[in-house]
Design goal:
Elements: E1 2-7, H1 16-30, E2 34-39, E3 48-51, E4 54-58, H2 68-89, E5 93-97, H3 99-112, E6 116-119, H4 136-151, E7 155-158, H5 161-170, E8 179-181, E9 202-206, H6 215-228, E10 233-237, H7 243-252, E11 259-263, H8 268-276, E12 280-283, H9 293-300, E13 304-308, H10 314-318, E14 324-326, H11 331-343, H12 345-362, H13 365-379
Parallel strand pairs: 1-2, 1-5, 2-4, 5-6, 6-7, 7-8, 9-10, 9-12, 10-11, 12-13, 13-14
Antiparallel strand pairs: 3-4
Helix pairs in contact: 1-13, 2-3, 3-4, 6-11, 9-12
Length: about 375
Amino acid sequence: MKILIVSSSFFPKIDGSTRCVYDHARSLAAAGHVVYLVTRGVEGAKRDENLEGIIIRRTSVSFRFGTPLNKLRMALEQVILIMLLNRRVHFDVIHAHGCSSGFAALPCRYLCRVPLIITTHGTMLLWPRRLWWKSETEVKRGLLFERFVLDHCDVVIAQSEGVKQYMLRIYSPSLEGKIRIVHTGVDHRKFQPPLRANPSRVILFVGALSEIKGVSGLIDSFAQVHREIPESKLVLVGAGPRGSYFREYVDRLGLRDAVRFEGAVRDDARLARLYSESDIVALPSNVGGPISCTIMEGLSCGRAVISTNVLGGIPDVLDGGVGLLIERGDWNALTEDLRRLLTDSEFLSATETRARIAVEQKYTLDSMISKLTEIYAEVSR
C-alpha cells in the first residue's frame, strides 16, 4: 500500500509522540509498504530525506508555536505539500498523528477522496488546571478545533478502552462508530530483558523533566528510600526547561552522588541498555492520556513499572499486576512501592515476569502494525 503519515512531531525532536510516529512509519516501511511522512521543518534537519525506508518531506517552517498567522502559514504549506505528493503518488490512505496534522490532510480527503485516519496523543483537558500552559479560552478554542477535525475523518485510533472513553466524553459520543482500538506497540526484539542475576537497585525515569511527569515527587520519594537503602540510585533520562532546577534540587537534598542525569537519549541501543541496568521504571505522571512509550519499553525490558492511575491508557496496561499504580500525587504510596520493589526480590522478580509476558501477548509492534494495516485495507476499498 501507499501510505502517507502526517505529524507535527518527528526527529530530531525527542518525545513520546515522536517515538510513536517513528515506530509506526519504519515498521510499515519494513513490511514493504511505500511510506511517506510529512512533518514540520526543524532547524538543522534536511527538507527531504530517507530514513529507514521512510520518505520524509518537511515544510520550510521551522517552528511549532508562534503567532496565529505563522501557524496558518505552516498549515497551508502542509496542505499544499500533501496535495502535491498525492498527485504524484496517489496514496491509499493518510494517517495523521494529532488533529493539527489531520486538519492539513482534510483537503486531500475531500478533494481526492483519500481516506483519513487520525491518532490523537492526549489533550490538556486531562491535565490538572495548575499545569496548563494555555489560557482557558485557548484550550476551549482548541477543543472546538479538535472536534471539527475528528468529525471529518474516517477513523479515529484510540490506544486503549480508557482512551476511547475519555475521547467520547471530551469530544463527542458521536465518535463511537468511528473509533477503533489499536494498542500502542513496542519493539519487543529491540527492548528485551537483560541477562543478569542480581538486582541493581536502580530506579529509571524516562521523559520530560517537568512537573507534568511528576519529577519533583519522584525525587522526594527517592530521597526517603535512599536514606534506608543507601546503595539505591535514581537515573533521570530526558530534558526540559526545568532541568537546571531539578539538578539544583537534587544538590540541595544532598543526593548528587545518588542521582544521575543522562539528558535526552535518542539512540535506541543506549536507551535499551539504561532499561536493562535498572530494576524499576518509574513514571509518576500528573496527566492523563494515551499509553506512554516509556511504560511500554520498560515492560518490554522486563522491568517493574510504577505509574499513575490517571484517566486514559496507563491503568489499562498496568492493571492486574502487570505493573504498579499509585493515585496522582500520592508520593507516600510511591515511596512504599519503591521500597518494596528494592527490598523484596521475589516480588520484584514476579512483577518483572508479568511485565514481559504482557508485552509478548498484547503489545508488540508487530501486532499493532497488523491491526493498522487491516484498517487501512478496509477504508481504502
